[in-house]
Amino acid sequence: MALDRKRKRGAEVIVQKNPTVFEEEPNRMDAEDDASAGSGHLSSGAEESDGEMQVEQEEEDISGKPVTTSTPHTTRRPPTALELRDIKDATDLYRSSSFKLQIDALLPNARPKYKHSPPLDRFLAALHGCLNSIPTVEPRHPLEASKALLKKGIAVPYISPLPTPETNWKVGFEKPSEILLVGSWPNKLSVKAQDKQPFTVDLAVEMPSTLLQEKDYLNSRFFQKRAYFLSVIAAAITNKKKGINADAYFTSPSGDPRQICLTVRPNSGSDDDLTKLNAEVRIIPTMGSTSPIPIQRLSPSRANIRTTSAGETAATELPTPLYNNTLHLSTTPKAQLLRSHTLKNLVPSYADGLTLLRIWANQRGYGRGSKLCIKGFESNGAFWTGVMDLLISGEDTSVASSSKSAKRKPLGKGLSSYQLFRAALDFLARHDFARERIFVKSETVHKFAPEEYPSNSPVFVDSTGVNLLASIPIGSLDTLQYDAKLTLDILNEDLTAQDPFREAFLKDHRDLQTRFDVVMRVDLSSAKLRVSSTHSTLDYGSLYDTLLGTLLSSLRKALGNRAKAVACLHHPCEENLLLETDPTHSPTIYIGLILEVEHAFRLVDHGPTADDPDPQAATRFRDFWGDKAELRRFKDGSITESVVWDVQTSDDRTKIPYYICTHILGLHCGIPGSDIQHWQDPFDATLRLPEDVTSVYRAAKAEAGFKAAMTAFDGLVKSVKALDDELPLAVVNISPITDVLRYTSVFTPTAITASSFTSLPRCAHYLQPMDVIVEFEKSGRWPDDLRGIQKVKLAMFERLATKLMESSPGLRATVVVGDPIATSDIMDTASLEIVTPQGWAFSARIWHDRELKLLDTSIDDRPHIPPHIKKKLPGGPDPKVVRASLEAKEVYVRRFLHAPRHHRAVAALCHRYTAYAGTVRLVKRWLASHWVLQKYVSVEASEILCAAVFLGSAKMGTSQPYVASAPGTKERGFAKVVQLLKDWQWQNGIFVPLYGEREGDTAELPKNDLPASGKEGVWRLSTELDPDGYMWTRDAPDAVIARRIQTIASATWSCLQNMERGSLDVTTMFAHPAKQYDFIIELNPALLPRYYQNIHVNPSVWARKGKYANVVDQDKDNHSTVQPGYDPAWRLFNDLSRVYKDTFMLFYDPLGGARFGGVWDPRLKEPRPFKILGKFSAIPAAKEAAKDKTMVVLNKEAILCEIERFGAGLVTGITQCI
Fold first, then answer.
1. Which of 98, 300, 355, 565 has CA 20 to 30 A from 63's CA?
2. Where is the composition biased (Acidic residues) (predicted)?
């Protein structure tokens, strides 16, 4: 009984214990790390971080009730039927109970704080009184009326075609027939916008029918009268004597001047100040149901703009669907309000489901914000309401449609908010907006038949009869569909694989660099349409929208199946003063492409054949493509109109989508290439060698490229296998383990022939050796001694080298005895250095499978005895031997077991994802330029990190991991890796499914029994074959380096944000600041064989000439042959790091760096007692610093002088920065 009480009390303590940081929600650490980043969204008036919505969490039990203490005398009440049903519903309707709790916490933070609405109520009452007190203005000529208002400081925003002195209609004003709150606010459906944008309270003022005439649907007459009606209201509001205490501005949320509104904000500090509520009032003139304008005239097939001369008939006019739909929108605000109210009362979860959908959309740029917005969604809240109406009401079955898809039936009314949200995403992801038309079921018959709508535009007719997609480009809908599919993939995955709530609702997905494969910044200042039409301009409403409509439709047609989506992003129109008439559009837009990598980089676009039955097809094709189109005969005998894109390199081929866009924009929109900015060329430049060096390679006709390196490797394999009869054992396999042979080396591999070597400067003599593993057939003739095995390897190398040189004239093979640093005689250190006649270098090592068994025996010769008994037994292996065996085993497992498998997996990824290799190359270049590659981040670790971006990440034991979206270009992949490093909580580790399901490979690998005490690395990069995750990060990076890389990634991410401002300088991201180091060691670049790879290379280094000619000649004689892998700077760096590992940390760029950066160990900066073998050079501390005479401090001057002597000839100077 007592034991039972103890257990109960223990359980109660656990329940009442406050959660630690690691037990809280996974978003907490992200939010704290990003709190200084700025643009938080949808948080309840407090902290905002890096575009993620912050959710207020309460310190409560899950049930929301305080936890009570139970005693042995109290009985636990079983859950009631209602509670059991709630638990089951939380799992069935909301994916999981925790997901429901997150949604419940999110929704209140996304809505207005209605407790701050009393000032709004007072302001609306004052505004209502002001509108009803405006005196009547008798009808007058529009020009005369505008002059009268201009004297009051109001410019009437008339639109095209502007009224002229010959205009025979008049404008006037009468008090509104009805003043009504419309939109989301009266139904309490408003959702917080991005970037602290204010809530919009829409106020519809109905224009009296006496101000309108039956023919006002023609030539924008209604919009002219509407503009004057709104201007009179603006004059009354801003009247200092009779008006209200508020500021007014003309705004056009959608950018269409025909939909101009009046935004009114109470002055700050007044009684009606709406600062706490963060709201503004928008006055929208509307047309009532009693309007004399016949609704039939608003059909999409009608022509309501007359551009013909007086002698021509109206029958030749083209339809004006956009104009008619905009006019129709003036009649729908009240009807949409009533419909939304009906749905809210009909479906209890309607409001929450709509809120979730709008939050999801806002996080992806489908709404207002300070960042770029997707074209067409600047202010289209009615679309999201229409989607919900479609799900609840279904499609109108009485409307005949050409689509073969089945009509959507209404969903149940008892669905949860999450289920409604999922259904909306499913519709957006599956519906083909370009081909299928939607007519939402309505209480009345739809006014216009489906055949009246244009065939080349999307159609989504809501219950009020208006087409909600008339002004949205198809490319924007393609982007919406793509985003919906990605979110559904996230929500369909296992909860342990990814945090779906954060990805769906909290994370900001508006960043250009990670969202689109190709981003172009287009300046429209000099744009001029090749084929301009007055009719299309009047139909669109402005030259700006006409230009964007033509631009986007042309790009989408030109790219075809190369792109999944072609999106236009721009900043919404700014507010205009009352003296400004036209909406202010930004002259700069951004074009974002999401590529279909299977087709994006093809070289030829085929058009109609020569025998096409349509004689105009070839003419249209040539007219669209211009001088790029030509008639060609292909190998299969076909003759077709074609467009061929000529490229010279693989980098040029990845820019074919950009070339297409540039050509089309210049041809159809008159935009020169200088006004189109993209960032692929600067990224490519970081991976190219200087032209002075590559010209020498071309002159010597040296082999270059990854394919040439693979060919050289295949030739070496054939040469070695041809020697089977002359070797003691036959060669079974030769496996590459170098990034050069898996397409991920930073620079394109190039062979150095004898002729090119003599022509190259000394600072460009580096030849990268390609590591390979040679596996001989199994044999019992190998010795059972580790030292004997190493001796046999040397003998095998000597025999192989002799036979290779005999069979291949010009080939040079040298046996490398070992590493002078390694003192163990049981570690694999021998290798065979091979230089082919073509100038390729290889470094071969021998793998013997029995070596691992012997190492395990040296470590533990009695594995069958339990450890606790083994400790009590006398004898045992020598600790020094165990330590040496552990070191040798670590090298063996990494080099011979994991490296070949890693190589094959990465090579397969390069073939599977075209952008993966380029992403890895950029990331390696970036890590090297910041002095952490190889020493602190191995090339294998960087490749696994990049694989996480393409394959996704998960936890061990999960099924297929979540894959967000595989980048289609290396630039997008690089940005995603930087984002991963910026946000990754490396304390939790990451699992990357690099190898796929390979049960056999996993069984072959030994259990990792290496001691954890020697591990200093903190990055845990787990794979199927490396569950522990430290195979490539065992020694580094440690916590200091990991935080340093995270800081560099954050700074790089901030630099990438400049893409939206057009001021992104790619070289800045690869420039490493040196002021943070305690001292800098300068090297002589002329003596560095890899200096030509420097990110900021100075060509004058190899242009210099020595003072004495004979010295230069002697130097050339000393380096007349190629030395593969010879890099004195890297050797010096490793020696200094090893000798002074307890004194300072050293950093270096292995890709041509000419400086070392050093940071003193902070523990040595303070005086400490003198100790023998203190592991650092010390000097007695100054009397002022320490009272004890035995205190010593670090002798920095002596250490730096010793380093300078140690690197004499290579080190040119040492500078102390701090």
1. 355
2. 47-61
673-726 per-position pLDDT tens digit: 999 999 999 999 999 999 888 888 888 888 999 999 999 999 999 999 999 999
For the CA atoms of 735, 767, 793, 1135, the dihedral, rounded to the nearest 10 degrees, stands at: -120
Relative to beta strand 1021-1022, strand 990-991 is parallel
d(CA 460, CA 437): 6
How many Cα atoms are found within 13 Å in the side-chain-facing hemisphere of 157? 31
Q: Are 497 and 962 in contact (CB under 8 A)?
A: yes
Q: Indicate the burial class of 351 (C-beta count within 10 angstroms; 0-12, 13-18, 19 or more).
A: buried
> How many separate helices (H) and strands (E) can be counted in the chain?
38, 31
Q: Which residues make beta-bridge pairs with 865?
A: none
Q: Residue 291: exposed, middle, or buried by beta-carbon count in 10 A (0-12, 13-18, 19+)?
A: buried
Average pLDDT over residues 454-483: 94
d(C-alpha 96, C-alpha 79), whole Å: 19
Residues 1135, 1139, 1143, 1146, Cα dihedral to 10°: 10
CB of 343 closer than 8 Å to CB of 392: yes
DSSP line for 346-401: H-TTHHHHHHHHHHHHHTTTSS--SS-EETT-TT-HHHHHHHHHHHHH-B-TTS--
Return the SS3 of 86.
Answer: helix
Q: Name the residue type at position 554.
A: S
- The pair phi, psi for residue 607, each rounded to 5°, is -115, -155
Alpha-carbon span 745 to 923, nearest angstrom = 11
Residue indicated by tokens 């499609």: 395
Q: What is the per-residue pLDDT across 807-823, written as a single tens digit (0 to 9) for each?
A: 999 999 999 987 767 67
Q: How far is CA 256 from the centre of its chain?
A: 31
Cα separation, 729 vs 731, in Å, equals: 6
Q: What is the CA radius of gyration of the chain?
A: 37
For 994, which DSSP code?
-
Give the separation between CA 260 and CA 271, rounded to whole angstroms.
28
Q: Give CA–CA dist 275/270, Å, rounded.
A: 10
Give the residues across from 815 on adjacent strands: 832
Sequence-ordered list of residues with C-beta below 8 angstroms from that of 1078, at least 6 positions apart, any chain: 1144, 1158, 1159, 1160, 1216, 1217, 1218
Please, which residues bridge with residue 5 across strands? Answer: none
Contact 278, 257 (CB under 8 A): no
| Residue-level pLDDT at 1015 | 67
CB within 8 Å of 1096: residues ≥ 6 apart: 1067, 1071
CA angle (289, 292, 295) in 5-degree steps: 65
Query: Cβ atoms within 10 A of the Cβ of 565, count?
Result: 23
The amino acid at 408 = R
Strand, helix or coil at 1010? coil
Q: Which amino acid is at 982?
A: K
- Measure the CA–CA gap between 1090 and 434, rounded to whole angstroms: 54
CA 324 from centre of chain: 39
Compute φ and ψ for 215, nearest 5 degrees.
Answer: -90, 10
Residue ranges in 704-776 assigned as alpha helix (H): 706-721, 754-759
**What are phi and psi for residue 827, nearest 5 degrees?**
-85, 145
Q: Estimate the crossing angle of helix 786-807 against helix 706-721, to 10 degrees.
A: 100
Q: CA-based angle 23:24:27, to the nearest 5? A: 130
Instruction: List Cα–Cα distances, 1127 to 753, 767, 1081, 1139, in angstroms.
Output: 18, 9, 17, 19
What are 283-293's pLDDT values in tens digits? 999 999 899 99
Strand intervals (E) in 777-872: 812-816, 831-835, 841-847
pLDDT tens by residue, 17-54: 333 222 333 333 333 334 333 333 333 333 334 445 54
Q: What are the Cα distances from residue 464, in Å, to 336, 346, 397?
A: 7, 18, 16
342 contact partners, CB below 8 Å, separation of at least 6: none
